[in-house]
Design goal:
With 474 residues, the protein is an alpha+beta fold. It has three domains: 144 residues, 2-Layer Sandwich (TATA-Binding Protein); 145 residues, no CATH class; 82 residues, no CATH class. It has 19 helices and ten strands. The strands form three sheets. Strands 3, 4, 5, 6, 7 and 8 form a six-stranded mixed sheet that branches. It has a two-stranded antiparallel sheet with strand order 1-2. Strand 1 and strand 2 form a beta hairpin.
Length: 474
């Protein structure tokens, strides 16, 4: 009985042990993620650079950057220097980058099937004739362009399946001026721009055609009463003064740009330009013989004095009011000061040119006659400028600015224009310029202008002629 009982217990225990793994095997196993891929035949994308031969599903950035910064062959660098017998290019790209996939070229671009050396020669010469300050990069085949209107552009050369693509982008500045320059530069790329013909027709001034149109419009306004024209000029100058006295840099820039227009007789008329020029140089409009001035019109000389003070402070001290002078790395505010300095030079150059040409003009029936000659005005201006900046003479400042022609040709061009006007009007200014070594500086700037900047070249030639001309006191 005991044996049978023990056998029953053992069999029962074995059945329980067998049932446990069966129960465990009945539970479902946890699911595991599965990754599947499907190979599809996708049409390869097309770009300006041609068909893409690599895997279309992968953007191969490494090969693009290797092509971008790879060193090209020396043959292209040597051939880029030879562009003609009398013109030497300032740009020698060592190679061209391919247009990246999915990179849309600007509409302001051209694709030319010509030699790289020929295209570079055309662009470089067009920049010189148009007086565009160009900073060329031979590694990336790009150029940073800056015009006299503070318009900033970027010019890039790309390698494409159809030839060489030349792309022009506007980075900063007036869009209307950009399209004007863009038309000339893209015409030069395809060979439709003749530098010699352009220089003969337009001289060193790009907007001569537009100035003639403005003159025709201004001639229609001669029927207005003279007193109304003088009053409008005074109001416009006061508006410019209000903008200059604001704390915002953009308002000050707009005020100086307004003065640039007011002191340009081609854009504002002879009467307005003469009044604005006297305000800039003398801080007053009372020295003008305004016979047709209304009896109840009273000039407030305070704003005029502040305008002259601001112009001189920007030119000689590169600041407005009691602000500190900037000498370090460019910040956002310092960039604004650099633009204001350029605009102040432009205002002074326009004002001196108006005073010089006004005395030589015999048709004074429709504009006021100045009671003082240009020599007296210029000498008074030189004396007042010395009082503003202490020992820092305005002629010395202009000569120093002219010495930076390699880095800032636009400022150097305006400085040369100011020096020429002062030396032609005043023997005292002419002698002082010679004492400060103006001849050597002007000659160096002339070489820079001959290579890169037509306006600078013409202004330096005028200054050299003035300094070399004999005078009665010599």
């Amino acid at each position: 009985m005991d044996e049978s009982l023990s056998k029953q217990q053992n069999s029962k225990q074995e059945d329980e042990n067998d049932s446990k793994p069966r129960a465990a095997s009945m539970q479902p196993e946890p699911s595991k993620p599965e990754f599947r891929s499907v190979s599809m035949s996708v049409a390869r994308p097309m770009s300006v650079a041609g068909p893409v031969t690599r895997n279309p599903d992968v953007i191969d950035k490494e090969s693009y950057f290797n092509l971008t910064f790879s060193k090209p062959q020396a043959k292209k660098s040597e051939s880029a220097q030879e562009i003609g017998e009398d013109v030497q290019s300032n740009w020698a790209p060592r190679g061209l980058r391919p247009v990246p996939a999915f990179y849309p070229l600007e509409r302001s671009s051209r694709v030319v099937d010509d030699e790289l050396a020929e295209i570079v020669a055309r662009v470089s010469e067009a920049n010189r004739v148009l007086s565009i300050h160009a900073i060329y990069c031979n590694e990336t085949a790009t150029a940073s362009l800056t015009t006299a209107e503070n318009l900033e552009m970027q010019l890039s050369l790309w390698k494409t399946s159809g030839g060489i693509a030349v792309e022009l982008q506007r980075r900063n500045g007036d869009s209307i001026a950009f399209h004007r320059y863009c038309g000339y530069l893209l015409d030069a790329v395809v060979g439709d721009f003749d530098p010699t013909e352009h220089a003969e027709n337009h001289g060193e001034h790009l907007d001569v055609i537009y100035s003639k149109k403005i003159q025709r419009l201004l001639s229609l306004e001669h029927g207005k009463e003279a007193a109304t024209e003088v009053e409008n000029a005074i109001i416009a100058i006061e508006i410019a003064h209000g903008l200059l006295m604001k704390d915002r840099m953009d308002a000050r820039q707009l005020g100086l740009e307004s003065l640039c227009l007011l002191t340009d007789p081609n854009k504002s008329g002879d009467t307005t330009a003469l009044i604005a020029s006297n305000v800039v140089l003398l801080g007053s409009a009372q020295d003008l013989g305004l016979e047709f001035q209304a009896d109840d019109m009273i000039f407030d000389e305070g704003p005029f004095q502040e305008i002259r003070q601001t112009i001189l402070s920007l030119i000689q001290l590169r600041r407005i009011g009691d602000a500190d002078e900037f000498d370090g790395a460019l910040t956002e505010e310092e960039e604004h000061i650099t633009i204001l300095h350029n605009l102040a030079l432009a205002v002074l150059a326009n004002a001196l040119d108006v005073i010089e040409n006004e005395e030589a003009d015999e048709e004074l029936t429709s504009k006021p006659r100045a009671r003082t000659c240009s020599e007296t005005i210029c000498e008074n201006f030189l004396s007042d400028a010395t009082e503003v900046s202490g020992d820092n003479e305005i002629i010395k400042t202009l000569i120093t600015e002219l010495g930076k022609a390699g880095d800032k040709p636009h400022n150097a061009c305006l400085s040369a224009k100011c020096i020429g006007s002062l030396c032609r009007a005043s023997d005292k200014a002419r002698r002082r310029a010679k004492e400060l070594g103006a001849k050597t500086v002007v000659q160096t700037a002339l070489e820079v202008g001959t290579r890169t900047h037509l306006k600078l070249e013409k202004e330096c030639e005028k200054v050299i002629t003035t300094l070399n001309s004999p005078r009665n006191d010599e």
